[in-house]
Amino acid sequence: MAPAAASGGSTLPSGFSVFTTFPDFLFVLEFVFGGLVWILIASSLVPIPLVQGWVMFVSVFCFVATTALLILYIIGAHGGETSWVTLDAAYHCIASLFYLSASVLEALATIYMQDGFTFKYYHENISAVVFAYVATLLYVVHAVFSLIRWKSS
């Protein structure tokens, strides 16, 4: 396949231009809010272990994958190949769906724990839900603009 630049489409940035291009600078915000979700879920008490397990899996998976993609983009491992644009769009669509499901389940678990749990755990879970929805929004916005870039490549 020809590089996206040769075919007139948009390409993925490399080097530190990742931090100055949209939607790629969203990697940093996804990293921060995903890390906050991971920390809050790990330190809180969730009454339904399967929910806590799923939210932990999603937050750790997306944190590690986002970090790996960010590093690969910074070192320029994509080499301008259009297959990386497809990978970027696919990853962010999957991460959006994962985070949406984790956010909804965590909100449901938090509603269930309103009575009978200590105030500290309840507030930690509220914070985790808020940050999970912020992370969901970031991944959705990144997915939409990655799909637009994919379509034009």
Describe the structure.
The protein is mainly alpha-helical. The chain has one domain (15-152). 35% of the residues are buried. It contains 4 helices and no strands. It starts with 25 loop residues before the first helix and ends with a helix. Helix 1 runs antiparallel to helix 2 (49-75).
Our measurement of the CA-to-CA distance between the termini, rounded to an integer number of angstroms, reads 11 Å
| Average residue-wise pLDDT | 83
Strand/helix succession:
HHHH
Main sheet summary: none
How large is the count of helical segments?
A: 4
Domains counted in the coordinates: how many?
Answer: 1
| Low-pLDDT residue intervals, each spanning 5 or more residues | 1-9
Measured as a percent range, the helix fraction is: over 70%
Rg calc: 17 Å
Structure classification = mainly alpha
Beta-strand residue percentage: under 5%
Total beta strand runs? 0
Approximate shape: elongated
Pfam families: MARVEL
Subcellular location: Membrane
Family: Belongs to the MAL family.
GO cellular component, one term: hinge region between urothelial plaques of apical plasma membrane
What is the topology?
Elements lengths: L25 H18 L5 H27 L6 H31 L6 H34 L1
Helix pairs in contact: 1-2, 1-4, 2-3, 3-4
Question: Can I get a quick summary?
Answer:
By secondary structure, the protein is mostly helical. It is 72% helix and 0% strand.
Key attributes of the depicted protein:
Myelin and lymphocyte protein; transmembrane; 72% helix; single chain; mainly alpha; MARVEL-CKLF_proteins; 153 residues; 4 helices
